[in-house]
Amino acid sequence: MDAKPVYQLYIDGEFCAAEDGAMFDTLNPATGNVWASVSAAGEADVNRAVAAALHALYEGPWAAMTATQRGKLLFRLADLVAANAERLGDIETIDSGKLARETRAQTAYVGDYYRYYAGLADKIQGATLPIDKPDMHVYTMREPIGVVAAVVPWNAQMFLTATKLGPALAAGNTVVLKASEDAPAPMLEFARLVNEAGFPPGVVNVITGYGEPCGRILTSHPDVARVAFTGGPSTARRIVENTAHNFAVVSLELGGKSPILVFDDADVDGAVNGIIAGNFGATGQSCVAGSRVFIHSRVYDQVLERVCQRAATINIGDPLDLKVDMGPLATRRQLIHITEAVAASQAQGAEILHGGKRPGQLDKGWYFEPTVIACNDQNVRTVQEEMFGPVLSALRFDDEEQGIAYANDTRFGLGSGVFTRDVARALRVSKRIRSGIVWVNTYRAISPISPFGGFKQSGYGREAGLDAINDYTRTKAVWVSTSQAPMADPFTMR
Ligand code: NAD
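Above: inputs. Below: predicted complex with nicotinamide-adenine-dinucleotide.
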């Protein structure tokens, strides 16, 4: 039998064990078995990583590099990530249970995120101000904010890392990246590529450990100036509390309970594909899962019947098998959460039209069937709570006004989908839906060029797109007197 892989922290350009030697096991969701062992960073390791990042920010070769040189390093990283997409993707699959088909493709595409920000590195500009004082020249500079703590969850790690690391590095910051304890190995594999790309020591540090203490110590560290977080809302509340200690600038990409609205004039095939992609793609473990599906009464039965027929053909199994459509959930606690929520919804009167349990043929691992639930009202638990699994709740609506009201009746506001052939309606509805992203006649499309992020309790700040880079800079105003006379004594009246 092969030896179990061992992964170490990446601090100041070197792979190293935690100072106290602490390790933890990471499990393969397809089997429930331990497959690798990973260093658990404690306080001393977090402090060392932040110190390395701070040193690299002000003292090392990184500080002296031009923006164009930083861009070149990012281009190199982009090529390395894309070239290693298969290997990185497979490790992410083993560690998180996400389909290899998805992790490989997503990692290959992630190269384009680094390229996008590599190209922007030398386009970050200040301005000369038309100042309201004579003999004064005032200009602004956009400087890096400082040490960035990037905290990522286990799903879509390469993507969620790129949306933070790309703009952070392009703008000249240094980074301590904290991987999720639920699937930490891919980030330490990624660290090898950072090393190979030639970033100076300390510019990117990758640590693995638990939210408590590792994440807490990192995000409240006095030398951390910027926190970029993706994860759940309850963790986000703790992060905001943590940053009361260092006043770090924070961006939060949180969960969702995104609506998909299907109007009676929609192309039914397209709408069904959108619903399937939005709920069963990535085993529903997607922050933008369109898990509240509102269907116009006139087409409700027809659309749901088609969704159930399609769900019945989904091939569930080993996520490394490229023919499989849906893998396991990432953690056992996710499986328990979903199982309980589905049972509670049934007890509230909701009807399970498809799935609702573990698949009989898979006795190992944390699998759950694609599940379609017909709900009579919005109080049903699966309608209210983020499932983060393959569970969709369907409800009827009777007209546009009611559909919009239902769609907005949530504390979240990340994504939304609108299926209609009527362009005017698409524009009206898109304007009134309170979410950071609206997809019309499509779903789950992403690009480095388009901003990503939520309204309401789905968080604040945007990742990807042009503006995201400014969120990793701070503005400095420089005042220069152009007067030929020296500055006058302020207490001498003329
Ligand atoms: P999580 O909130 O449990 O963990 C995320 C990260 O936070 C992990 O690295 C964890 O170790 C760390 N953490 C935990 N406690 C901490 C603390 N006190 N201080 C600092 N860090 C701490 O999230 P998860 O279960 O790994 O991921 C699922 C959640 O992420 C879902 O709610 C999902 O919707 C959300 N998500 C959002 C997006 C988005 O872009 N909006 C994308 C993917 C996932």
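The pocket of nicotinamide-adenine-dinucleotide is lined by residues 151-156, 160, 178, 180-182, 211-212, 215-216, 219, 230-232, 235, 238-239, 242, 253-256, 287, 386, 388, 414, 454 (CB under 6 Å).
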